[in-house]
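Section 3.1: Structural characterization of target chains.
Under the original work plan, the team committed to producing a structural model for every single-chain target entering the pipeline before any wet-lab resources were allocated. The record below documents one such target. The sequence was received from the expression subgroup and is listed exactly as submitted; it comprises 421 residues.
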Amino acid sequence: MKKSNQIMRICVAVALAGAAASSIAGGVAIGTQSGSGTGNAFAGGAAAAEDASTIWYNPAGMTALQGDKQFAISGNVLVPSFKFSNTASTGAAYAAPGDGGDGGSLAVVPQGYFSMSLGANWKAGVAFNVPFGLKTEYDAGWRGQLTALKSEVKTYNVNPSVAYKLRDTVSLGAGVSWQRLEAELTNFAGGAGVATLKASDTGYGFNLGALVNLTPGIRYGITYRSAIKYQLNGTITLSALPAGNGGATADLTVPENASLSVFGTVSPQWDLMADVTWTRWSRFQQLTVLRSTASALGAVGSRITALPFNWRDTWRYSIGANYKPSPAWKFRFGLAYDQTPTNDVDRTARLPDQDRTWVAFGAQYKVSKAGAIDVGYAHEFIKDATVNNPVPGFTTCAAGCLNGKFADKADILSVQYSHTF
């Protein structure tokens, strides 16, 4: 019984640790929420207000949109890569020769936005987007299979918003979010076989924004997006130990963030923009996992484990430019630096995230007075991510450690069509 309880504790702890990390961290979170912004590395996101995707970045920007109605539909192809190289792994648990292949997995992410006028000075809109939705998967039997095999997270977000032009130079906006999160995570659990966790929940939040024109041709945007609380509920199944199957639950809060952006038209041909975004990852220090159903391994409400993450607040900085050689064409450029919330002590192989630098470019072509097509590409240069993970269930390397580094990178290709009518 003692051995079975230990196995159950290990596999549930590992799976739920992955659920938290995969859901909210930069390594597998989707920072690309519009096709037009990709080419600028999302510099000036809260101030650009070029199309209906401003509903997500700053709802106040709807007052700057032309026409009574506008929509934008975009699709993004995300191609992350996470390749592990062993350095000094120890213990029989991590003695397998395989390094897991490429843990990255291609994802196609859609978004849709619609904005309309509600009369003098008022606009309303709604965003349908996917804030998280990437997938990582390592080869079966690889060296780190006790820590991670598959991590797949899907989210669905609906964000209705309103905006009001207070005066010619000031607009305000607000919105609410309904967000559904679904996760499936697996790892190898020794004699218990493969552990599979499926968990889900629905959370609610809000966002606020302001758009200010202090001087002609230059506008400033500030926006705030609230924390969202989840109570993840799901089932854990063990392929070789059915007696260990049962329910698990954990409270999780996605932290708030705030952005300050500037967008300026400096000449008929050139726009310049910049953005700084702060995210309060430091609120995510530990995840406590409890049993939600009674079994031979524990009573309802008993603690399975407490998982340390010790994340820190992060800052993202970006700059960009648009060049308009003709009324029909616009070329975009952007650079960004995006900090990771992880650290070298607590980082896991399930989320081998590190600081990243974006290099981006794109183009817009106006197919008519009302319609425009955007194409954008970004490459993320990511620092090597080191890991030193003890066997799940242990706090030291007494039973072995997965020690090595990940060579990471990511590519993003975005296409968007926007239309005003």
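The helical segments are 2-24, 35-38, 45-48, 54-57.
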